[in-house]
Structures are given as structure tokens and as C-alpha cells.
Amino acid sequence: MQLLLMRHGIAEDLEDSSKCSDEGRVLTDKGRERVHQIALQLKASGLVPSVYLTSPRVRARQTAEIVAATMEWQHPPLVTKTLDLFGSLNDFLEHLKEYPASSVVLATGHEPSMGEWFGELITGAEVAIPMKKGAVAILNWYGPVGEVPVVFHGYLTAWLVRRLPEV
Fold first, then answer.
1. Which pLDDT value is given to residue 155?
2. Burial 17-55 (b: 16+ CB within 10 A, else e)
3. Which of 152, 147, 116, 158 is nearest to 137 (CA)?
4. Across the beta sheet with 104-109, what order do the strands follow?
5. In whole angstroms, what is the distance from residue 116 CA to residue 135 CA?
6. What is the distance between the alpha carbons of residues 98 and 116, in angstroms, rounded to a whole number?
7. Contact between residue 135 and residue 156 where contact means Cβ atoms under 8 Å apart
8. Contact present, 38 and 161 (Cβ < 8 Å)
9. What percent of the chain has pLDDT over 70?
10. Does position 60 have pLDDT exceeding 60, yes or no?
11. In three state form, how does the secondary structure of the chain look?
12. pTM above the 0.85 mark?
């Protein structure tokens, strides 16, 4: 299984948001554009998800929807509370076991969970690797999820994508 662990794109600041709560914060224009650029790079690299999972929060859902639209996916991303703020890595790994081993899974969520999970998955210890907004960690399991170590394949940020040749 391949996992594309993605932090949501740049969203409104809570203080500047027209929404009443953190749950309703939306992506900014800059956030939408950068997520689209990252999605184009993923597609050009052959990293096309077959499963789209997202936190229930608006900014994460919008991020997953932009990636799905860029990939020409015809279904809405699946919302799962395991990707909400402070979700459990163990619960998320159990959720992943529901999908075939051949799946490429995009999982869109939030800091600090994404960075904590990324760090723990690649080191085996409780080490957080903070993820930039819109960043994607590319991880593989060459066996059953949770039963074999994950292999780290890359980390993609909007900053890096803007410096790569156009796709």
C-alpha cells in the first residue's frame, strides 16, 4: 500500500475567518492554488490515489477535493474522523486495513497529527516531523499495514513544486 499523507492547504486564520469556529475555516486562494500545483506534480509523477480520505474539517475536505478533481476522480473524498485533529494513528492504521494492499491512499488531515504520524511511521518512535501546509509525505508498505515497517519515499512541498520544471 502506498500512503500519501497530506496536510491541508493554507486556510483562513481563525481570527480572520468569517466562520464561527475552527471546523468551518476554508482554504485561501493561495492555498487552493498551491494544493492544485502539488496535485499536478503528484499526477505527473504517477502518484494517483485510488482512495481519498479526509478529515471532516472544511479546509481538509477542500484540499482532498482539489486533489481528487485534478486526478479526475469522479467521487467525493471519504470523510473519516480518524483524520480529524488529534486523531489516533492506531485507529487510522486499522482503517487503512479495510483497503486492498494495492491501494494508493491520499489521507488529508491536520497538524499536529500529520507530523506526529509521519515521524512515528518512519522512525518507529514518538518523533514529530512537522509538515508544511499542503505538504505530502510519500510512504509505502511492502506487506500488511502495521505488520511490516513503512518505507519513506519522499516529501513534497509547495515550495519545492514551484522550483521544479513545469509539468
1. 96
2. eeeeeeeebbbbeebbbbbbbbbbbbbeeebbbebbbbb
3. 152
4. 78-79, 51-54, 104-109, 2-7, 136-141, 150-156
5. 14
6. 22
7. yes
8. yes
9. 96
10. yes
11. CEEEEEECCCECCCCCCCCCCHHHCCECHHHHHHHHHHHHHHHHCCCCCCEEEECCCHHHHHHHHHHHHHCCCCCCCEECHHHCCCCCHHHHHHHHCCCCCCCEEEEEECCCHHHHHHHHHHHCCCCCCCCCCCCEEEEEECCCCCCCCEEEEEEECHHHHHHCCCC
12. yes
**pLDDT in the model for residue 5:** 98
The owner of cell 511511521 is 121
Kindly state the average pLDDT of the residues 89-102.
95
Name the architecture of domain 2-163.
3-Layer(aba) Sandwich (3.40)
